Amino acid sequence: MVLSFLWTFFVQYNPVFIKIGIFFELFWLDLLPVGTFIPPNSLVATLLCLELVTLFKVSNITHIVAIIVLSNIFSYIWSWIEIKSRQNNNLVFNNVLKRLKFNLSVDMSKIIFVSLLKMFIINFTIFYFVSFIIKFSYIYLFPFISEKRFFDWNLLFLLATIGAILSLRLDKLYKALFLGLMGLSVFYLFT
Known about the structure:
Blueprint: H1 2-10, H2 15-27, H3 42-56, H4 61-101, H5 108-141, H6 153-160, H7 162-166, H8 171-189
Helix pairs in contact: 1-2, 2-3, 2-6, 3-4, 3-5, 4-5
């Protein structure tokens, strides 16, 4: 949500940016990076969405939803990148332990610098590669996205509260959520 405020402050004022930030904050509320669990990167999804909405000057809610879906799909790439990065860092750490075991010198500042540099280059490259893919996906999908009259920000916020409901960890809420989504899907398909 802070990212959407900063985006609004530095790029341009648009209330849609704040709404996008609120949506992602609610949607990813359940997924906390605790322990070994690495959730999809909500910050990347928010940044991709804000970038595309700004670039294409999107104001139609159904087009914004398409961008949100595309952004969320690609946010899962970052959890995979994080897993691979941690595995690589574990190998480096094991090499440091081996060197220390045999009383060999270790330049920790160089190891940290190389690790941060690799992380920056990989994240920067993949972010713009994914951004490029999403831009062309959106351009290709744009003519096929029809405007839904009943779809507005209130419904989108209601759908985003799924994250808040899932964070409660109650079985009855999961069942009610499933039944509600099925009912909404049937209503959406037949209207």
